[in-house]
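Quick illustration, no need to memorize.
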Amino acid sequence: MLHTTPVATHLTRHSQVGKVRRAEGDPVAELKQLTRFIPVPRPAPASVAVALDVFDPKASHAATKAGKLVFHCVGDTGGIHGTATQDAIAVAMEDQIKEAGDTGKPAFFYHLGDVIYFNGQSSLYKTEFYEPYQYYPALIFAIPGNHDGDTKVNKGDAPDTEPSLTGFLDNFCATAAEHVTPYRMSMTQPYVYWTLDAPFVTIIGLYSNVEGSLDARGRNDQQQYLETQMKNAPADKKLLIAVHHPPFSLDASHGGTPEILTAIDRAISSSNRIPDAVLTGHVHNYQRFARKIKDRTIPYIVAGAGGYADDARSMHKLQKTVAAAKLPFQTTQNDVQLIKFQQTEPGFMRITVDAKHVTIEYFIVPFDGTAPSLFDTVIV
């Protein structure tokens, strides 16, 4: 169910001094009356689907032979205030690759957006992306977040003279791979929203723009793409949806994004296909929701503690009532429960997909430098 905020006709343009605080336990924010949307400066190509085979035939073959695909996933990494936390998570992911056997080695890192803060500037990719992951021995895919596409300069921000998504397009959607630094090459993803066809799984990546919407009002380009990709996704593979803005969040600041929730629900209805999991970032903590759709229970996961939040105070906290409640917590949405959360330590996901199951593990990488540890596991 969508929430809307009535606009009183007698208000002057100066009368509204703040948004209405979301009710405790409500995982979806109010629908904004005005949503800022910045068009992608590059038109979508004819095809936005690419097989893992094209990027890394060896990894694709190894996954097929092993009978499972393993990969890392998290969002909100750009460490503009220092990369110590981002570096620690990168090392933890590197160690998992080094320590894994031939049948369990993560094949890539799928980034859930906000690669670079605050405006995705090309000049910051060296320090906020290439150097932190210079030793990560696998490919890195991504979808953009709001900070990758925004062009608004707030007081104190560095000047931004680039069009929206310039840094992202140059480094992840390059027409040809090239060495941007000695450490890593640029990626050749087809677009800012795109589909990765991998062994055992189809990953549909979306771009939720700067305020959480797939399309400008009056258009449905990306919505149509989502519905078509879900309808055409192989029935014998698992299906994951990745998008930066979360449909559900019980943090005290953002809340879930109603337009993304509606977009995914429309696609489920249109395609008659239910995703096996929805993976998101944006909120700087970890939350796992369980949503009942027909006869299935689907995890909707927020994993946005990938390094930008560089101390415990910078992590987004849940609503006080929710944080103190016993889990699982029943939200105001009848079909949605909060199963687990982590709001004090950063971390990342390791996802394993085989012919029967999707296993999602969340590892925390404590700020105090102690060893990473497994915090949560869900098997779909």
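Confidence is low (pLDDT under 50) at residues 1-11.
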